[in-house]
Amino acid sequence: MNCRLSVSLGVRVLVVLLVAAVAAGAAPVRAAAGPRGGAGEPGPAPGGARSWPLGPPRPEVVRGWDPPASPYGRGHRGVDLASAAGAPVRAAASGQVSFAGRVAGRGVLTISLTGTGDPPLRTTYEPVEPLVEEGTEVTAGQVVAAVARSSHCTTGCLHWGLRRGTEYLDPLSLLPPWMLRRAPSRLLPVFGVPVPPAAAVPAGALPAPTGRAVAGMAGVLHLSLLTAVAVVAHRAQRRSGRGLSLVRPAAPWRPRRRPR
To answer: What distance in Å separates the CA atoms of residue 105 and residue 23, rounded to the nearest whole number?
Structure first.
């Protein structure tokens, strides 16, 4: 029995191997991506919606929260957000205006947040010109005041505070993690700037490739090799015009002559 394996059958086998290689390479990527809707994606924060007091865009924090070591010690009981005078101030969370007036010559607005326990959390904004009165119910993101001129910051800012009773807290803790991350930078084309000369990279300066990178490169090389074999086999089939036999064909049969 003659055992022949044609090139067309070999090409089909190679196609199946290529599909399997692509599927095997894509599986780790899907597993690494993880399920959608995990932590860090936009969504309602615990206790209700949240909003930056300024913006959009997200304001710059020019001075962070620095709690004092003692109730009367030095520190910064809130955060300062860069802003120009007249900028609209928004409620960081829903609640009720508990104070709208002047303290030590500066306009102050205080909002008691809904559903934050007893005593409730209270957010404060200063220096501002309040646009709402005491007792007004407000929602997160609603404009409640305008930034007033003050010498609190050299370039102008809004002081945003958070308290529970007499305890000062970090107001940035109100915001979910995804709101604290900056948006990705956008690269714009640059014209007329000369290209700097390439600097020599010292040995060991480049990080070693990770296991995922090595696996990805191996998969690409494997796929390239299989593709090359398939192309060569296909060309060989077209040139020969017939199947490629793996065994040597038998000589044609001829009748044996009888001796006289």
So the answer is: 69
CA separation for the pair 50, 44 (Å, rounded) = 8
One DSSP character per residue, 29-94 reads: HHHHH--TT-TTSS-PPTTS----SS-SSPPPEEE--B--SSTTS--BSSEEEE--TT-EEE-SS-
What's the CA angle centered on 100, arms 147 and 169, to 5 degrees? 75
Is residue 160 within 8 Å of 152, Cβ to Cβ?
no
Read off the pLDDT of residues 163-199 as tens digits, 9 standing for 90 and up.
999 889 999 999 999 888 875 555 555 555 566 666 6
Q: How many Å apart are CA 133 and CA 236, to the nearest integer?
A: 87
CA distance 159 to 126: 5
Whether the ω angle into residue 127 lies within 30 degrees of 0, i.e. cis, is: yes
Q: What is the dihedral of CA 240, 244, 247, 251, to 10 degrees?
A: -40
What is the pLDDT confidence band of residue 1, given thresholds at 50, 70 and 90? very low
Q: What confidence tier does 63 reach under pLDDT thresholds 50, 70, 90?
A: confident
**Residue 30 clears pLDDT 90, i.e. is over it:** no
Task: Write phi, then psi, for 100 (nearest 5 degrees).
Answer: -150, 100
CA 114 from chain centre, in angstroms, equals 30
Cα–Cα distance, 49 to 174 (Å, whole number): 10
Residue with the two structure tokens 């990705």: 184
CA 180/CA 174 separation, integer angstroms: 10
Q: From the DSSP assignment, how many helices (H) and strands (E) are in the chain?
A: 3, 11
pTM of whole model > 0.70? no
